[in-house]
Amino acid sequence: MSGAGExxxxxxAARNRARLLDVATEVFTTRGVGVPTEEIARAAGxxxxxxxxxxxxxxxxxxxxMVRRLEAIAAxxxxxSAEPDPAEAFFACFRLVIEQSAGKNExxxxxxxxxxxxxxxxxxxxxxxxxxxxxxxxxxxxxxAVRNELGLPELIALLAGTGAAMEQLGADPAARERILDVVxxxxxxx
Amino acid sequence: MSGAGExxxxxxAARNRARLLDVATEVFTTRGVGVPTEEIARAAGxxxxxxxxxxxxxxxxxxxxMVRRLEAIAAxxxxxSAEPDPAEAFFACFRLVIEQSAGKNExxxxxxxxxxxxxxxxxxxxxxxxxxxxxxxxxxxxxxAVRNELGLPELIALLAGTGAAMEQLGADPAARERILDVVxxxxxxx
Amino acid sequence: MSGAGExxxxxxAARNRARLLDVATEVFTTRGVGVPTEEIARAAGxxxxxxxxxxxxxxxxxxxxMVRRLEAIAAxxxxxSAEPDPAEAFFACFRLVIEQSAGKNExxxxxxxxxxxxxxxxxxxxxxxxxxxxxxxxxxxxxxAVRNELGLPELIALLAGTGAAMEQLGADPAARERILDVVxxxxxxx
Amino acid sequence: MSGAGExxxxxxAARNRARLLDVATEVFTTRGVGVPTEEIARAAGxxxxxxxxxxxxxxxxxxxxMVRRLEAIAAxxxxxSAEPDPAEAFFACFRLVIEQSAGKNExxxxxxxxxxxxxxxxxxxxxxxxxxxxxxxxxxxxxxAVRNELGLPELIALLAGTGAAMEQLGADPAARERILDVVxxxxxxx
DNA sequence: AATGAATGAGCCTTCATTCAT
DNA sequence: AATGAATGAAGGCTCATTCAT
Lengths: 190, 190, 190, 190
What we know:
Four copies of one chain form a homotetramer. With 190 residues, chain A is mainly alpha-helical.
């Protein structure tokens, strides 16, 4: 549902915008949000002016990056609605969200921000995700696969935390899997 | 082991140094490391010049803050050596580290940094902690209280991650406890 | 004497040029010359490119605006040549020039600039005005209606100054009239 | 009545502040407010940082310049209270204000701004001036030296306008005097 | 001819760090 | 030792102007 107010955008402009988003995503997640706008522009092969034409503020750029990530997650979690087994669906979703944010420190912050938040633009996609998570959690709990005392806030916090934990083990997939097992097992009723 | 090169430090100088560390700890953890040095100095009731006399660099100040926190943790975990029950000792230590870092986002980073690191000054205290964690982990595993396949890196990552998760639930102690339960239960052998 | 080098200009191009001049006049006089070119173009319903096709420089646009205003004044003052009573003609002209520039701060500057100047394009129309003012002043002085010691520079300065004064009283026509009376009376021989 | 909240200011700091104000006054009035802050700092022999330490904003610097000018005028006009002859006092004041602003285009704007205004800091000094002008005007009118129908707004507008007019004749003191005569004579009752 | 995206020099402002007092 | 004024390199952002479409 990409709104009404947007005009088609010329081919090259769209390409530049996309490049900027890609570069910014990469740079922000690997080196933090302190990277100068000028460097991002250069890495995207455009001038600063172009960056600021597309994103009126550095913060707006960051927001756009986060929105895109949240939307990607929302799209993926939506696919899990098809899964018939609620427990299966829930755990697949947990993995998916973690993996999406794997290796991206900033994203943990984005998700965290989604918990409280202030930026209007993030509200919509994060609400979508929250709604889906809530549904999946409920299903899994009804199926007896997840502790009943856990609520949505705890789930979100665990997602962010597990993501953060896995980032530290970046180079070692087996260790990451072990961590994920710990958390997933911990979610089950005692 | 406070080295050899340091001279006694006049009483007021020592007081200033301590105040700066306290204020910086508070400020860095609650508002991030972006807070201007001048503001820290003012909050500590000294001039910037004094701050830079004690800590030649902003980074040095941050480092000192982290060292102090790590040393505090090391001191506490050391006390747990006395605990006869290895499982008990391990879980108490886990809680302790988490609680120390609870509410302090930056500290999670400090711990994370302790995993890889670059700053020489952090090496020593973090090595101490690592050694103690390794010993406690080993004891708990021998006692059959913790999964055998987990290594020290996974433990550290889980500590950082759980700390991060609990920060999101700041205002809700019960929810925090539920999260901690999930992880602690997950650590147990299946 | 609209030179030789200009080709006829397509109908729509001429319309755009006129619109740009109108908008620029309005915008420059009400909000100052600091308004971005892009905004002027948008208000005129064209792209920036079009603006710069018609006026190679922002300064050129400002110049064109001023030339048009000067020419309008020159045209009006020319009509006063018909007036048989020299005193009448002079005072009418004074009022006219003031009223033309009333409410347009920038125009006062334009007139001021006409006194010294640098822009070649302004020279011609301002010379025309100056010549007419000189003639009217001379007539009024011969008729004994204006102090003999006043020269053209003083007249121009008074025009600009009175215009500036009246701008401050924008909302109060009666007060403006009172000011004008002061100056007009002051012009008379003691 | 320079408030209570200001601390004494070190000797060199005071010197720098004064130099900055002097330079800014000169530069703003001769070349407009568009001059880069960096240039002002350089001309004052300090770094930009120093400029911004003393004046947190370019606008604050401009404001300080204007306040100082207004206060200087207020101080001078206050001296005229001693003058026994009301007509004499009024005309002296008129001259004085004009001469203070002579050659300083921006100042006309400051006075104009004093008419409407928004900046709190300018309010006080401009109110003082207005009050004094009002008193002098009233005295002169009672003495029959100035037209009764003129109010304070008209007086202020005439001051600004006359100042503007005289700026155009900068190099020619005799011509300036002639203009002033015109206005002063015009102020008298017909 | 018109369009509007792209460009990049330049501006205001911040802040870690130095140094005169 | 302490102070806080001074410094200047960066950084975010604007806008006149150019150029591909």
